[in-house]
Amino acid sequence: MIHLTIVSVTLYLHRTATHRGLDMHPVVSHVMRMWLWLSTGMLTKEWVAVHRKHHAHCETEQDPHSPKVKGLAKVVLEGAELYREEAKNPETLEKYGRGTPDDWMERNVYSRHGKLGVAILLVADLALLGIPGLTVWALQMIAIPFLAAGVVNGLGHFYGYRNFECTDAATNVSPWGLLLAGEELHNNHHAFPSSAKFALRPWEVDLGWWYIRLLGWFRLVQVRRVAPKPVIVAEPQVDLDTVRAVILNRLHVLRHYGRDVMIPALKQERRNACASRARLLAGARRLLIRDRKLLSDTDQRRLRLALARSRALDTVYEFRLRLEKLWENGSQSNETLLQHFKQWCVEAEATGNASLQDFAARLRSYSLSAA
User: β-strand 205-206 against 176-177: which pairing, if any?
Assistant: First the structure.
């Protein structure tokens, strides 16, 4: 029963109602909506609104449940309370809850009698199981507040690994999304929020995606969006579509840049460094690839010192910042974007850095579609 609740949260509330990565058959969506009312008392509009606000203001004071702002213990232990507090905010519901169900059942049953569902489930558990049903019901009531509100929103922004250096602190808690049906892959989700599939590396498992494929086989769901994959062509023709492909795949681009350019430069510097410089460069990997806004004041000072002591690192880091400007400044004209892209490639190839030259050549080969 708890697993059915988890599946309903990730497939219906998260991937369908909030991010529109799926189209779900009305019967399936209503079954999940009703089960969530029974097993959690949660309303679609409230959950969707709070989660959309989380994405819009992630890791800021306006984020309803950021462990970076409110503290890890607060989010893990009191995540449900933070959710309920934000769900009472009418401005949040009005701004971020649009497009959610507003049918007769929602207006007259679910919204009007929010606590009735969990009461019905309690009676059913007691009728089926006797006194032990009270324990079963209690476990059902604490499962989602702890696993979803606590583990995903708490640990998922504090502990784990990152495939993509998005502008928030989201992490993949585990590469095998089995217990929470894929919600463990939180960094992947924040990198591509509208993707219906959370597993993006060959060894990652998204159990929710398996359910989607099964429901899709019966034509009960239709996938609308998945994360883009870079398309590399053998004979590149650098034009505006090339720039658009780079911008579309910007998180892939940054990951490859860190892996193929910055990390090799750091390893080379550490091999040639004296003892004092080696100590300064220790731990610099995270500082070099992490988004600047996520670095503390101490980390930023350490990064500046490391770059000041290494011309090679300073060069590749500067080119990374210049590359990011392609998609950070949305007001640039198409002609300016293309000019900046070509200039970046030419100047990268002129540095004499073999890794940077190879990366620039690969970047020219990005395409919106295979040739």
Answer: parallel
The amino acid present at 279, given as its one-letter code, is R
Q: How far is residue 254's CA from residue 259's CA, in Å, rounded to a whole number?
A: 9
Given this model, what pLDDT does residue 370 score? 61
Question: Between the CA of residue 293 and those of 206, 307, 318, 323, 348, what are the distances in Å?
Answer: 29, 17, 16, 16, 25
**Is 194 in contact with 21 (CB distance < 8 Å)?**
yes
The confidence score (pLDDT) of residue 234 equals: 84
Partners of 231 in the β-ladder: 367
For residue 362, give the amino acid letter.
Answer: R
> Mind listing the pLDDT tens digit for each residue in 188-197?
999 999 999 9
Tokens of 329: 């400044």
The residue ranges of the chain whose pLDDT is under 70 are 330, 370-371
Q: Where are the domains of the chain?
A: 2-223, 232-367
Distance CA 172, CA 227 (A): 16
Q: d(Cα 259, Cα 354) in Å, to the nearest integer?
A: 14
pLDDT at 329: 77
Pairing of strands 176-177, 366-367: unpaired
Q: What is the pLDDT of residue 371?
A: 52
The DSSP H or E segment spanning 93 is: helix 90-96
Phi and psi angles of residue 192, each rounded to the nearest 5 degrees, phi first: -135, 75
Distances (CA, A) of 281 to 222, 254, 289, 293, 363: 48, 21, 13, 20, 28
- Residue 147's pLDDT is what? 85
Residue 285: predicted pLDDT: 87
Per-residue pLDDT at 45:
95
Say how far apart CA 303 and CA 285 lie, in whole Å.
10
Closest CA to 58 of 68, 71, 46: 68
DSSP letter string over 229-258? Answer: --EE-SS---SHHHHHHHHHTHHHHHHHHI
DSSP state letter for 177:
E
